[in-house]
UniProtKB/TrEMBL annotation:
One of its GO terms (cellular component) is autophagosome. It holds the Pfam family RabGAP-TBC. Residues 75-86 have a biased composition (Low complexity). PANTHER family: TBC1 DOMAIN FAMILY MEMBER 25 (PTHR22957:SF333), TBC1 DOMAIN FAMILY MEMBER GTPASE-ACTIVATING PROTEIN (PTHR22957). Keywords: GTPase activation. GO terms for biological process: regulation of autophagosome maturation. Residues 73-96 are annotated as: Disordered. The keyword Protease does not apply. InterPro entries: Rab-GAP-TBC_dom (IPR000195), Rab-GAP_TBC_sf (IPR035969). This is Rab-GAP TBC domain-containing protein. It comes from Bracon brevicornis. SUPFAM superfamilies: Ypt/Rab-GAP domain of gyp1p (SSF47923). Residues 123-306 form the Rab-GAP TBC domain. Gene3D superfamilies: putative rabgap domain of human tbc1 domain family member 14 like domains (1.10.8.270).
């Protein structure tokens, strides 16, 4: 659980498997919470996002996004094509033939650390990513054969469709109130500014891919009320949808990824506060001048790093 399941290279853009995951889709609720949901007519109870830290974080991210919006696409493309160091990757991308060497006879990944190192230093051939990502995200329960993995994905896709249609039906009936209204509003605001300069999400706001991203995040938030939705989740779901090109499969991958990352989005802020503290201590030790500069500009909370 301490090892990363997926390494992502983040390119700046202008504004714009351990165990089955069945139990991760439907969180356990107390009888009191169940009664509250039944009385309200809405099947989920979602916590709000109170507190100064969330408001300040959102303002900081908005400022960064506006600043990035001033960068020209030409300058970004030149930077991305040349690379920050001007050096080619240490090794070529992972190929299908090479990937098969990391699989046992039933198709399970072996020598996981070595596989992740190969991916970290060279990436994955684009056509292979939707296959490999499911493995390194630990989507599949342990011990499944190839046929069992296919059946598993089909079953989970059907479960996702059922979960999605529950809240969509309420919206269609004009019952978009309370928690449902809160979640859909939060998600819609983020989705409409996530990777809009990428051709996959380009065009008008009713782009079908943008709608799929909205469906994925809303369904996740409503079915994981202890996590709900927090700004930044759209940036995790977006590349998954781009690669999978399939809404249910992207949702399944997001659930797997969030099993590891959900603490970063919890309302108590404990995980992120700890990380900000470690980062601040590192800056003070290795670059005290820079830390003092940030402090003089009241940026030593480091929320811009979120």
């Amino acid at each position: 659980a301490s090892e990363p399941y997926l390494y992502l290279q983040v390119n700046l853009k202008p504004f714009g498997e351990t165990g089955d995951c069945d139990c991760d889709w439907d969180e356990q609720q107390t009888p009191q919470e169940v009664a509250t949901r039944q009385e309200s007519g809405f099947p989920y109870k979602t916590p709000k996002l109170p507190g100064l830290i969330m408001n300040k974080m959102e303002r900081t991210l908005n400022m960064v996004q506006r600043a990035l919006g001033n960068l020209s696409e030409e300058s970004q493309q030149a930077f991305q094509s040349s690379g920050s160091s001007g050096q080619p990757p240490p090794r070529p991308p992972l190929t299908d033939a090479e990937f098969r060497k990391f699989l046992d006879p039933i198709g399970q990944v072996i020598h996981s650390k070595e596989l992740r190192a190969v991916i970290y230093f060279g990436g994955i051939e684009p056509s292979l990513r939707k296959v490999v990502w499911k493995h390194i995200l630990n989507v599949y329960p342990e011990g499944m054969s190839g046929r069992e993995r296919m059946d598993y994905m089909k079953r989970k896709a059907q479960e996702y469709t059922v979960l999605r249609e529950k809240w969509r039906l309420l919206v269609q009936k004009g019952q978009n109130i309370g928690d449902l209204s809160y979640v859909t509003s939060m998600v819609r605001k983020d989705v409409l500014r996530t990777d809009r300069h990428h051709k996959f999400y380009g065009g008008s706001d009713d782009n079908q891919n943008t709608a799929s991203l909205f469906n994925i995040l809303t369904t996740y938030a409503l079915n994981h009320p202890s996590v709900s939705y927090c700004q930044g989740m759209s940036d995790l779901a977006s590349p998954l949808l781009i690669i999978m090109r399939d809404e249910p499969q992207a949702y399944i991958c997001l659930c797997a990824l969030m099993r590891r990352l959900k603490d970063n989005f919890m309302l108590d802020g404990i995980a992120m506060t700890t990380k900000f503290t470690h980062l601040a201590e590192g800056l003070q030790h290795y670059d005290p001048d820079f830390y003092n500069y940030l402090k003089s500009h009241q940026a030593d909370d480091l929320l811009f790093c979120y």
